[in-house]
Structures are given as structure tokens and as C-alpha cells.
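Hi,

Apologies if this is the wrong queue. I'm a grad student, and the batch job for S58 family peptidase from Polyangium spumosum produced an output file that my downstream script rejects. I'm not sure whether the problem is my script or the file. Here is the sequence I used:
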Amino acid sequence: MADESDLGKGRTVSRRVLLAGGALAALEAAGCNVLPAEVPRAPAVRRRIRDLGIAIGALPPGRHNAITDVPGVRVGHLTRIEGEGPLVPGRGPIRTGVTVIMPGDDVWRDNLPAARFTLNGNGELTGVTTLDRRGLLETPIFLTDTSNIGRVMDGALAWMLETYPEIGDTAPVPTPIVGETWAAFLHDAEGRHLTDAHVREAILSARGGPVEEGAVGGGTGMLCYEFKGGIGTASRRLPASMGSYTLGVLVQANHGRRHQLRIDGVPVGREITEGMPFEGRKTKSILIIGATDAPMTPVQLGRLAKRMALGLGRTGAVSMHGSGDLLLFFSTGVRVRRGAALTAAPVWNDEHISVAHEAAVEATEEAVLNAMAMARTTTGIHGNTAYALPLDRLPDIMRKYGRPIPTR
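Support response: The file is valid. Your script probably expects a header line. Output copied below for reference.
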């Protein structure tokens, strides 16, 4: 993730492993200055909400407290931060990127049960008509800003055509799942600024383990409750009596008004009134992606998708008229082999699904808070600035409302 010293210096910032062969050359040919992964960064000053001593809910998190705790799920980012000063449409400043969720090793050939829910529909999530018809996920999931949705679809399909030569021959051409939120407070939206090579790099960088959060990937240009927002993630483990399955959530948070923000029930947004974006800034929209290794049907996953909306509400969101609040949940616990006539798999018993509902709510609430806790102050077009949530203020605010943070 870029730190504040990287902003506005004509750089494209990308956290990644070193690329093999043609991918790096393709990026350079596209005019991108790609920083190698080993370039030193300023010391990290941001901390996740749980690391601050604020534990959300009752269920335990997974090892990394991330969607990647679900076996087989990987996440990758491509981040572009370039230029400063007045907006020059088509040239910058640039504050954009793409985040990819790889649902398994081979989601095209091993489709996964999935369902989605629209809490408020002023946004776009492509490919969902096919998902609704089949109840199956067949592509990775990509998150970006609004004006780049077509560019990311192009790059995603280019990668799939190259990776799966049967597409368009013996197999249908898919519509990739791509979601968007609006980034024009910080970003040259007219310029778009993403290419097939950027999408490819995000895919190649996808890894398990800890996930970069905040102003990274698709979340680079986003605000949350009028603080800097972006990508956040969290997970929950179910008890052994429920199979010890994991539920993970990843959000691209770009929603809410300052006064609405609540952290573990405390009205933090009402207590921090400084550092507001300029008057008239209306942050809106959130993408919420959930995953589990519990073997569930599309109907059950649809129930979990709706419960993620409850977790969003616990952070203060009201899903405003202009919001694109789009939610999707998939399971890696059932795989449907393309072309196979039958699939034998256990199925979760609905009588015990309430604990999974609780996990989805808690993980979503914490993922939204992590998006703000890990995001750093970012300046974009015209000097517009999205200020980071001041973590040092939280102990006093929580104490004021009778919720002291344990000393760590």
C-alpha cells in the first residue's frame, strides 16, 4: 500500500511479488512506472481495529482475520497513485486500482455456489444475471471504480480467454463479475487509467494470508463515513460442533456520512468533526463480498448475503438513496465441475444456520472498520483530501461512552 510520502510524486504504486516475463513488460509499455516489491516504505502507523483493542462480536476470527482464511480464497491488488494538483481530464491525478478475489484454484472449471443481494441498487455488479440463473460463480470477482468497470471487464475477459482456450469454442463466453464504487472526489474518473495489463497484474499478485487494506486496489480513491476508506476484510470461525468452518468478508467501502459512524456501538462520527471533505461531498456505495468453506446452497448463501447488510448497518449505514450497496456470497465447500452430470456433496443443515448468520454480521462490521483503520490520508485532484480516521482519538471517545479499550 502506498504511504503518504508516495502521493503526488508522479508514481504508480503497486505492492506485489515480482512479475514473470511479459506482465512487467506490458505494464511498462503501457507507460506505468512499477515499483518493485522490495522498495522500502515509511514505517506503518495504521492498525486494524482489533489490534487497537476493539473486539467486534463474540465469535473468534480466523488466523489472518481476512477473507483469505477461507481455504482456497486469494486476494490481489493493483494500485495506481500518480500526479498531483488540478484535474486534467485524461491525464490525472490518478487514484485508482483494481482488487481481485480469486474464489479457488479453478473457478471456471469448478463453479461454486453463490448468491447476491441488492440492498440499494444505485451501482453496478456485472455478470449477476448469469449468477442468478445458475446459482453458480464461474469467474473471479473484481472491484474497481465506476468509470473503470468496462476496462476491468475487458482485462478480466482477456485473461480468461488466454487461460481457458476452450472459451468461445466448446465453452460459452462468460461475463466477469466486476463491481464498482465512485472515486471522482480524488481521481480523474474521465481518464479511467486501467488497462488489461493492470488487471493481469492484480490476478498474478493474488495470494492467501494477510490482505492489504485501506487505500489500495479498487479502494484507492474511496471514502468511508467521510474519512478515507477503501478495502477492508475480516473473518470468523464457527465452533467445532458446527464443522469448524470459516466465513470471511471483504469490502470496498465508499459510503456514509460522518455523523452516522459507530464503532462497536459508540457514535464515534459525532465526536470527530474536523477533517471533513469539502461541503457537498456525498460518499456513497459499498461492495461486500462474503466467502465460506461451509457446504451451502445458493439459497443459504443468499440468506448470508442479506445478513452482511445487518453488519453494515451496525457501523451506522442507512443505505441512502444514492448508494450502490451490492452484496455477494459464495461457498468453496461445494464444487460443480463444468460438464459433469452429478455433484455429490454434503449440504449445511438449515436448523444450524443462525451461527453462520452471526458470523457474517460480525465479519462485515469489522471489515468496514478495518477499511478505515488501515487507510491513510490521501490527497487527489485539485488538492481534495480524504483524511484518515484518527486512531489516537478512539481510546478517549470509547471511554467517554463507557467502553474503555483494554490496555494492550
